[in-house]
Design a protein that fits this description.
The chain is globular, with a radius of gyration of 13 Å. By secondary structure, the chain is α+β, with helices and mostly antiparallel strands. The chain has a 4-stranded antiparallel sheet, covered by helices on one side. It has 2 helices and 4 strands. A hairpin with a 4-residue loop joins strand 2 and strand 3. It is 23% helix and 45% strand.
Length: 82
C-alpha cells in the first residue's frame, strides 16, 4: 500500500550541536518521517546545518511544518522546500 504525503527538504540551522538529537526526536514526534539526513559544521559562522529529506502527511501544510520546527529550542533558522 502506497503512503500518501509530500516530501520536503528541510534545512535547519542550530547553534548548539548538543541539541541535534532533541531536534531530530521532536521532528519524529511530530509524525514527520525522515528519509535522509545530513549534518554539516559551518565553522565560519559557528553554527551547524541539519539537512533533512522528509515525508509529511498531506494534511500538514508547509506553514504548519515551518511553525512546528521553528518553535523548537535551539533552532536558529529554517528553510523548507518541496
Amino acid at each position: 500500500m502506497k503512503q500518501l504525503g509530500s516530501e520536503h527538504l528541510i534545512l535547519i540551522t542550530i547553534d548548539n550541536p548538543a541539541g541535534l538529537k532533541q531536534i531530530i526526536d521532536n521532528i519524529k514526534g511530530n509524525k514527520i518521517r525522515i528519509l535522509h539526513s545530513r549534518i554539516k559544521d559551518i565553522k565560519k559562522d559557528a553554527v551547524h546545518l541539519l539537512e533533512l529529506r522528509t515525508k509529511v502527511s498531506s494534511s500538514q501544510s508547509i506553514t504548519d511544518l515551518y511553525h512546528r520546527i521553528s518553535d523548537m529550542d535551539g533552532v536558529v533558522s529554517i528553510e523548507i522546500s518541496n
